[in-house]
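Subject: complex prediction, re-run

Hi both,

The earlier run crashed halfway through, so I resubmitted it with identical inputs.
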Amino acid sequence: MQATSHATHHDPTHADSHHEELGFWRKYIFSTDHKVIGFQYLLTALVFLLIGFLLIGLMRWQLAYPGRAIPIGGALMEKMLGSDMVGKEAVTGKVGVIMPDLYNSFGAMHGTIMVFLAIVPLAFGAFGNFVTPLQIGAPDMAFPRLNMASYWAYFYGGVVMLVSFFVPGGAAKSGWTSYSPLASVADAQYAVNGQTLWIIGMVLLITSSLLGAVNFITTIIQLRAKGMTWMRMPFFVWAQFVTGFLLLLAFPPLEAAGIMQLMDNVLDTSFFLPTGMVVSGKVADISGGGSPLLWQHFFWFLGHPEVYVLILPAMGIVAEIISNNTRRPLWGYKTLVYSVLCIGFLSFIVWAHHMYLTGMGTKISTFFQTTTMMISIPSVFILTCFFISLWGGSIRFNTPMLFALAFLPMFGIGGLTGLPLGFNATDIYLHDTYYVIGHFHYVVAPGTIFGLLAGIYYWFPKATGRFMNEFLGKIHFVFSLIFMNAVFLPMFVQGMAGMSRRMYDGGATYSLQNTPEAIGALNALVIKHNISITHAAIGLGLAQIPFIINFFWSMFAGKRVTSDNPWEATTLEWSTPTPPPHGNFLKEPAAYRGPYEYSAPGAATDFTPQFQAEKP
Amino acid sequence: MDIPYTSKPRPDTGLYNAKVGIWLFLASEVMLFGALFSSYILLRIGADVWPQGLLNIPIGTFNTAVLITSSVTVVMAWASLKMNNFPKFKLYMGITILCALAFLGIKSIEYKDKFTHYQVWLKDGTTLTGHIAGNPYFWNHNTLDKKKLDHIEFTSDGKHDAKAGDKGQSHPGGHAPAVKIERKDITRLSAYVPAHSTYFAIYFTLTALHALHVIGGSLVLAFFWGPGSKMWKTDPERFTNRIEIGGLFWHFVDLVWIFLFPVLYLL
Amino acid sequence: MADSHDISKHVKTYIGIFIALLIGTVITVGLYYVHFNSIAVTIAVALVIATLKSFLVAGYFMHLMSEKKTIYWIMGVTIFFFLALVGLFVWSLYDIPKPRGL
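This time it finished cleanly. Structure:
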């Protein structure tokens, strides 16, 4: 079996004869090693996850207690962001009330930061980078320097996004979707405004993803070890492969559209601005002739594949963990592979289901409805395969498995609540309501994020040589699960009652100006949910504290692993020393069988690793 | 630590890494330019007026020939390396880069011509195209207000009193003498810049993005021609592959222009 | 690795393709002066010639004719999505509900 590892930090052992000792900067900051880059992505993205969470926390305060100043830090916020963004309470004069423009900025940036600066870098940049070369038996990515460039493009994109909060006018405030003409009209009085910086930041982020996608796909095609055929790859690698293609082909149209919107903002073009557009009562001084719908088409052409970019890596992680902790092979490996390929393919031709209310004709609307319904089928196949994989398993309920198990029903709720949104008829009612917010957060928050957290707990021992603390992990899990549902479940109720999203007052206007009998009025219970959701959100934030403590404490004082393969897993990454050195494998790796040979009949142990040669 | 298949092709795919990488990158570029082309289609279909004849066809044709030439010289440069002829490689690659510079030079002249060419819409509903005395760049009606000018000296293109809303054709022929147009009669003044109309907006976006790719490509090829060519002595196979990869990018840039030219200049 | 014999055959091909491309350009510009009855035909003529030229560049200069399956798959998938992008955008422009008279 495996030799006991030394599990020392910063082990200078190299897998090859090159004994170039790199200095601190080349080893940890400007590294071309996929594992270091993966870790950089992880840390940066987790910080952005926290920032995005803080933004929504502040917004939720405004929604629950409209017009009340935030309890701590109000004065500081006003100093940093200006008094037109942060106001005073009407009665007490306390500073720290979030003004509508700031609320909208927070809303737009929460979405942007969470999607592009947190989840994608975590799912693709961090996990993809760290695990993929290890799982296919490669010494690194195909283009290590390009990999480093991708990270720094992401980093600077993030810096630009954060800087945009502090320019005149504040950050972008036209939604993460940046619809024209609002995106060109808002803050138009400033030459360089938050919206312009948003576009520049997006260009950097798109560049980062494109370069990353080229790297991942080339690596998976070209650097698989001997015996690692396509159908012997772990499902995690298949998921990253399809994700790479989604990023490669879906991002460029948004980049083109971003350039065009930038020109609308800075060079006064009218790509997305219609003829005769009136702003503040005056006809705008533009050439006209453009189409706001054009922007929407381009945005959602990326936007839809983007959501699959968010979910597929998490599915990959969950697949690995479920198989490992049921001690059984994944059920339906071929189905999973073909389903994920189908999802990738179909995801390019469903985008206009985000645009049902733009006045599309019935034929094209039917086309998109049909493809949208079709794409739900492979998703259901994948989830079903995961569920069936649990049958007859000898389940180990460790922290990664708890998160992976919770992923299943949470993603199920998210996916099922998407169905009424995919049908044109029901979407007419639900579009732009809190129902949509509930739907997509269920898929990404207790969906993807649980998958990512599971991955952190699972691969932590390989990266550091120590386990994360199980007790803290279980506390983190239980309270996260409870509060995730407490935050997002009521949103379905609010949405079905007709509460619109992106409203600064949380729909209060609708309840004040209409009698309870009026159509469209929101009753007090629906509005009251804002308060319970906000409290749950605070709880969710607090529930992450055990995780943060656990993460850093365990790196230095966690229980040490006693083997290179502490979870007794079958995939190639568990055959390296712990942590893996530069070059990953001490001897040439090879795959001798499929990736999930658990409890094979007649075998001596309940798992037969891929990297174990046949007994002669 | 050695990454396999950087030069030697992988047996089952028959490819070396950089080749897969560049084709993937070109795939993303197809989507990028494809998105801009589809914008062109939508903007044109949705427009009331779409000018014709504002772009110089002989110049555009010449530029097309320049890029096609650079395409054949870059593949000849690669072929020369394959035939172990380094001096020939230097020659062909040098010509390629010169062609690129010629293309960019000609494009700049085209751009400059546009930036000094104006259209003015008058309060009586007519529109004139032509030049302003002194050939300033980038003026519009706001510039006139900022500079507190109450009139402009305008030399029309030889088409007088066209009604606003016509196809914007400019006819060859003599120019009318300079006329004085009062600021108070002007509803709109614009050079042929992106802000002028969606026609020019998409023209400049497409050609400028293409030109950026020409610049980027020529920088890479110039590096391979110059300091990068040292690798021929140490690792000729890898250097030849680099030229192949650079050439692939260059051909793509040529391909985009093969579509850009008829779509923008001829259709 | 230099197969001189192979490559010198290819050189002849490259020159031939170069001449074909120049001729194609001349034809395209020449046809500009011919008036076709319908817009569709005009566009089709321009795009067909451009596509043929692009096949020559891609096929011979970029060696796509002798490339491997992997590359065909990558570009094939890409072209499909590009056509889907253009096709669906244009369809969306034309499939608009007609307002019914009140």
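The beta strands of chain A are 86-88, 95-98, 278-279, 282-283.

- K.
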